[in-house]
Design brief:
- The complex is a heterodimer of chains A (495) and B (95).
- Chain A is globular, with a radius of gyration of 21 Å.
- In chain A, strands 1-3-2-4-6-5-10-11-9-7-8 form an 11-stranded mixed β-sheet, with helices on both faces.
- By secondary structure, chain A is of the alpha/beta class.
- Chain A contains 15 helices and 11 strands.
- In chain B, helix 1 packs across helix 2.
- Chain B is flat and about 55 Å long.
- Chain B has 3 helices and 2 strands.
- The longest helix of chain B is centred in the first third of the chain and has 15 residues.
- The chains are: A alpha/beta (495), B mainly alpha (95).
- The interface between A and B is large, with 72 and 51 residues.
């Protein structure tokens, strides 16, 4: 079989089970692609020996007839996941040299299902960023380019390496994490599918924490079917994460009938932003028409607190980050700054954190420290938590009125150039998450589906937002949208 | 609310991040840009709204208060920048 690295999970699974392909062949093909794709800077710690051992074990399982869907499937794992014995540094200098003695629950579940880990993937430092430009490993690069233009584009962030690796067929799928849009925005920028599950669906145990009330892991894949298969392997109750939901995991793939007749799709008025590019407007209108043609009922809805989601997020996420990142003190793991004669423990903390954290991480930790400090806690943090309650209520009201899913653009633009935002105020960069961040604040499931190309030949995506715990139904609607859009474009290889 | 260099210095100190004096004015100005953005929240009527603590109504799970794990001192210390005689080592804490 040629180019097996470009297979979907579903097709690879079928070929593996039929004996047309072995996990070892598939893994070797992917490792070859990873090796040749240094220019994308997507994989940052390669684990080829581990991958070959895992592939061999997967082949034995398949031969024995004990093969779950993910058995023998080569994956990339975001650097935010702790992987036993393999560097896991959240793309931060402060975790330089850290090799966990344990495996995150999500990556362990994927390994238990027989998947193969090819290596660790680039990302924004501590998942704080929308362009993969805050990484200690340097920028990950989007395999897509504008027509007739060799300028390097961002794959989005924070799961930029995951998105680039999947879009360039270096692996069959990858894990991502999403705190404000970090799975869905990069998926949209690279023409792939990304799912942020309901908060609590995937265990957070062993994933380096950014903002604990918002963080969720999810799959980044080539198709909706693959997302359904991979999500099922990733989620489930975990006693080690007290916010992990003790609910049965449905068969997500079985829910993909493509039949959405009678479903009600809400179109939120507040997502029609001032200055929205005409291409995004059209993409959204086309997607709406596709769902209508498939038999869904389209209704206009209002989510009145939408415009306050980003400001609320930029209080809550930095506040939680400042607490979570307090653990990086140069004592127990990671890096410690070189100290001068006479330096005490306070100097050790201050120098270690100044050297170890990049600028964006420092900025967010300090903003979080400020909004939680005495005298400001009520004015900022508590007010933001109240606004968050109102944002969630907007969605609760929409769902109570009979809406099954909500359709929005995934991003306000196509992928932008690396370095293009360098002179902009940080707030400009934050606006990338304007359509995705509400979903994290409300704890809902969301999926980005590629549905078109812009005039420069870059992929664009739409987002579907579902009811809590109803990923199966949401994925089925996404499947109907994917089938109608028929997005099959691939980036032209230059790397 | 405007942040001056003195406040920026205090916040950096609370966050235990060393910031050189020369960098404080730029830091204060970045804080002001972010806080200016956050100020929009003051437009929202939050009268009588409870601050959200959990996105899904759930009671935290409980378990027996028993030892479930342990006895792995080597593993705990394996990533320490400085570990001696089974302990984490740090510079002098008390005079």
């Amino acid at each position: 079989m040629a180019d097996v690295n470009s297979l979907t999970i579903a097709d690879a699974r079928d070929a593996l089970r039929k004996g047309d392909l072995t996990a070892t062949e598939l893994t070797d093909a992917c490792l070859g692609q990873v090796e040749a794709a240094g220019a994308l800077n997507a994989f940052v710690h390669n684990t080829p020996d581990l991958a070959r051992d895992q592939a061999k074990a997967a082949d034995e399982r398949i031969k024995a007839g004990d093969a779950p869907s993910m058995c023998g499937i080569p994956l990339g794992i975001k650097d935010l996941f702790c992987t036993k014995g393999v560097p896991s540094q959240a793309a931060s200098n402060i975790l330089d040299g850290f090799r966990p003695e344990y495996e995150s629950t999500v990556s362990q579940k994927l390994l238990d299902a027989g998947s193969v880990m090819l290596g660790k993937l680039n990302m924004d430092e501590f998942a704080m960023g929308s362009s993969n430009e805050t990484s200690t490993y340097g920028n990950a690069v989007n395999p897509w380019r504008r027509q007739g233009d060799a300028a390097q584009l961002t794959p989005g962030g924070s799961s930029g390496g995951s998105a680039a690796a999947v879009a360039a067929d270096l692996c069959l799928a990858a894990t991502g994490t999403d705190t404000g849009g970090s799975i869905r925005q990069p998926a949209a920028f690279t023409g792939i599918v990304g799912v942020k599950p309901t908060y609590g669906r995937c265990s957070r145990w062993g994933i380096v924490a950014f903002a604990s009330s918002l963080d969720q892991a999810g799959p980044m894949t080539k198709t909706v079917r693959d997302a359904a298969i991979m999500l099922e392997a990733m989620c489930g109750h975990d006693p080690k994460d007290s916010t992990s939901a003790d609910l049965p995991v449905p068969d997500f793939e079985a829910a993909l009938t493509g039949d959405i007749k009678g479903k009600t799709i809400g179109i939120p008025a507040e997502y029609r932003m001032d200055g929205m590019p005409a291409e995004i407007e059209k993409l959204w209108a086309d997607g709406t028409a596709m769902l209508k043609d498939a038999g869904a009922k389209i209704v206009d809805i209002s989510l009145p607190h939408t415009k306050y989601a980003l400001p609320a997020y930029y209080v809550i996420a930095p506040a939680e980050a400042s607490s979570n990142l307090a653990r990086y003190d140069g004592v127990r793991y990671g890096r410690r700054a070189k100290l001068a004669q006479g330096d005490g423990v306070t100097e050790m903390y201050e120098k270690t954190r100044a050297e170890g954290f990049g600028k964006e991480v420092q900025r967010r930790v300090m903003v979080g420290t400020y909004v939680l400090s005495a005298g400001f806690y009520d004015a900022y943090y508590n007010r933001a938590r109240k606004v968050r309650a109102l944002i969630k209520k907007d969605f609760d009201d929409a769902f109570a009125s009979g809406v099954d899913a909500i359709l929005t653009p995934a991003t306000p633009s196509a992928a932008f150039g690396l370095g293009e935002m360098a002179a902009a105020d940080p707030v400009q960069m934050y606006l990338n998450d304007v359509f995705t961040v509400t979903v994290n604040l409300a704890g809902l499931p969301g999926v980005a589906v590629p549905t078109g190309l812009d005039a420069q030949g870059l992929p664009l995506g739409l987002q579907l937002i579902g009811r809590p715990w109803e990923e199966a139904d949401l994925l089925n609607t996404a499947y109907a949208l994917e089938s109608a859009a028929g997005f099959v474009s691939k980036p032209a290889r230059w790397w | 609310m405007s942040i001056d260099t003195e406040t920026a210095r205090r916040v950096a100190k609370l966050a235990r991040i060393k910031v050189e004096d020369a960098d404080l004015p730029a830091l204060a100005s970045e804080f002001n840009a972010m806080l200016g953005f956050i100020e929009q929240l003051n437009e929202v009527d939050v009268e009588g709204v409870e601050p959200m603590t959990s996105v899904t109504p759930m009671r935290l799970k409980r378990r027996e208060d028993g030892v479930t794990d342990g006895g792995m001192q080597d593993k705990v210390l394996s990533n320490a920048p400085d570990a001696r005689e089974g302990f984490f080592a740090v510079p002098k804490v008390v005079e």
